[in-house]
Amino acid sequence: MAVGDVDGCDDRTPEEEVSEGLQVYGAVLQAFRQDAGYTQESFAPKIRYSVHYIAKIEQGRRFPPRDLPERVEPVLGPTAAGALKAAAKKLNRKAGLASWFQHWAEVEEQALTLNAYECRVVPGLLQPEAYMREVMNCYLPPLTDEQLELQVAARLARQRLLTERGTTMFSFVMEQHLVERELGGPEVTRNLISHLLSCARLRNVELLVMPRRRTAHAGLEGSLYLAEGPDHEWVGYVEGHQASLLYNDPNQVSTLLQRYGRMRGQALDPEASIRLLEQLRGAP
Q1: What is the distance between the alpha carbons of residues 156 and 75, in angstroms, rounded to a whole number?
Q2: Which pLDDT value is given to residue 3?
Q3: Smaller CB count within 10 Å for the chain: N or C?
C-alpha cells in the first residue's frame, strides 16, 4: 500500500527540540576549547578544520564529522574526546529534515541498494553545499537563517551515506536540464558539476544523465526513489509539495522498479554521462 506521511509539519518550520542534540554537542566542544584557553581562530588549525566550520559546529548548525573526537584528543585531551563521543551518541542525524521525509530517511540509512530519479533538482545526496543553499533560498515561505543552517547540516550529514556505506549501491538518474538551468549562476554550476563528477567516480555510485531529447521517457510521472532493505524487500518513495508517499505494496513497488529500470536504459550510460558533464563544465 501507499502510506501517506503528511502531518502538516514541514521542513520550513522545524521543531525546537530537533536541533537540541547538535546544540549540546556544540556547547560541549566550546566549553572544553575555552577551558583549554583556545580561541576558535587558534583551535581550528590544530584540528585541521576552518574557523567557520568550528563556529558552525559550536552553534549547533553543523553535524560534526565522525573523526572530530580523534582530532580533538591530542589538543584538548582524552576527557574532552570522551565527552564528545558520548554527546555524539545523542545526535539525531535527521535533525532539520521534514517530518514527512524522516520515515524515508530511516529507510535510506539501512538500504542495500538505493535508486533515485530526479527531474526537479539534483538529488540531495549529490548536492554540494553552495548548490543546496541556492535550492533552499528558493523555498517559499522563506527560511530563517537558523532553519536554513539546520537543513544544510542535515543534508550534509545524509551525504555521508555515499562513503560510510561503501557496500551500498547507489544509482541516480537525473535530467540534463538540472545542470543546464544554472541555478545560482555559472560558478555554482561549475562547482556542482565538479562535485557530480567526483561522486560518479565512487565505486558504489552510478550516475546516469537523461538527455534533453528523448523520443520515449518512462519517468513522465515525476521523480521517484527506491530502496532495497536488509530483508531484500523493496520500498518506493515519491514526494511533492510538503507531502510524501511511501510504497510497500509489492505490485506498486514493482511498477516503480519497472519504470526505473526502463529509465536506466533510456539515459546515457555512465561513461557518456561523465563525458557530457565534463563538456557542460568546460575546462576544469
Answers
A1: 26
A2: 47
A3: C
